[in-house]
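Re: Re: ligand-bound prediction request (bumping)

Still looking for help on this. To restate: I need the protein modeled with zinc ion bound, output as structure tokens. Inputs repeated here so nobody has to scroll up.
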Amino acid sequence: MKKKENKHYASTINIDGISVEIRRKQIRNINLRVHIRRGEVKLSAPLAASDDEIMRFLLKKTGWIKKHLSTPKSQPLTLPEKFENGDRICIWGREVTLKLSTATYGKTRIHQNRDYLIIEHPGNTTAAKREKMVREWYRRELKREIPKIILRYEDLMGVKVREFGVKKMKTRWGSCNTRAKRIWLNLNLAERQPILLEYVVVHEMVHLLERGHNRRFYSYMDRFMPQWRECDEILKKS
Ligand SMILES: [Zn+2]
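Reply:
Sorry for the wait, this slipped through. Here it is.
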């Protein structure tokens, strides 16, 4: 199916728990509006503005946006109840819309296409089945990204991670078994900005150098990931 041409194509990004609707228009400057009562943040940008430019603009304005919103969301979207067509979920800090489509042949599968997360299924699915698929998709995303981070920091830190895993965790973002050199990461990290996953992985890897949360531990954190405090603050709020 061909995608409808639309030069005012809107997308949504989620920055520090705030969702921002972005529209590109024939204008000269980036424009930001906050509808306090509705809790909406809308940004319009020149057609030629790059994603990077918009992101940098927004990062500078996060404090300002939060001050203006009466009820700022400090968390990513909570998962929908029924995982129905049109429901919104978060991946890597961006909002995507769930789309259910019937696969005439073959079996059930889930994949992302730009701002859509598409579940194809041959017959009827249940909400529980769809939820399971979304969680599996989160797991796949994490399992693709985590090894890259580990590899990068192993060299830098001079440690070796023997094994990693992803699971649902209620109270923690990650954990480390120093003797087995195994780290566990919270499945929900797939909903957050990639830098937050990186932060949690680095934190758990630093435990391979220092088990306690003491001065030595934090000086390692400062050395290997100078921006860790900002990440920590974002995660603590959610
Ligand atoms: Zn720790």
